[in-house]
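Subgroup meeting minutes
Present: P.N., E.W., G.H.
Scribe: E.W.

1. P.N. recapped why we're keeping a running log of single-chain structure predictions: easier to compare across weeks, and new members can see raw inputs and outputs side by side.
2. G.H. added today's entry (284 aa).
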Amino acid sequence: MKLVTYLAEGKERVGVLTADGAGVCALPYEDMNEAVAAGLEAVEAAAAKAEAPVPLGSVKLLAPIPRPRQDVICLGINYMDHAKEAEQYDKEAFGKEKPIPIYFSKRVTRAVDPEGDIDSHPGLVQRLDYESELAVILGKTAKNVPADKAGEYIFGYTVLNDVTARELQTAHKQWYFGKGLDGFTPMGPCILTADETAFPPALDISCRVNGEQRQSSNTRLLMTTIPEMIRELSSGMTLLAGTIVATGTPSGVCMGMEDPVFLKSGDVVECEIEGIGVLRNTVK
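Output recorded in log:
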């Protein structure tokens, strides 16, 4: 299934896309957090009883989880090629001797919708960057989960753009402020449920800016795998149902360029993951 949150007749609704992607059927949940908590089997049963679809073009797609229950957990420097370009940009900020996972959180008051705007924060940010990422959504509370059981805890996947203010990220020596500004978490266009792809997923991931290809990789190249990250995180903290984990970005970001050209107002950023879709946003 592909699950969405959408606006119809002034009301936010949860829905499931039709097989051809042209329509959406409403589901009986107040929001996506409630649907995730209900579990995949319950959502599948509700989808089987859903009323006739309405054309997707007649509604507005919102971020699939507009208001996450908690900050998004993120992995930094989780593709080898991105590790190399990051270290070249700022060795003090990004260099590391061994591949120990870098975890940080990304504050999200409200996720940015597909086709929504990325706030460029003029006057505060000059080095605005994109990061196309696969985001994992947990379907049930996880604590002390062994790696070989991690797949049982996943509800689905979506596309997340980990928008970053590079000068704030590096100046503060930690990443919370530089990655947590308002409008820095575009997400969508849908949640691909976990049963729709092999685990762990090996999906093509890319990013385009104004139609120019910037990133192109595959999620099988994650340095810290999804089973490993769930095992490690859940060994010391309780991960609630609905927790979103962004798994890192491949090379090709602005700061990796020999002569970096950062995002500016009017730029259109398209993050795409195979099987999920395109997350398209405009810098304002």
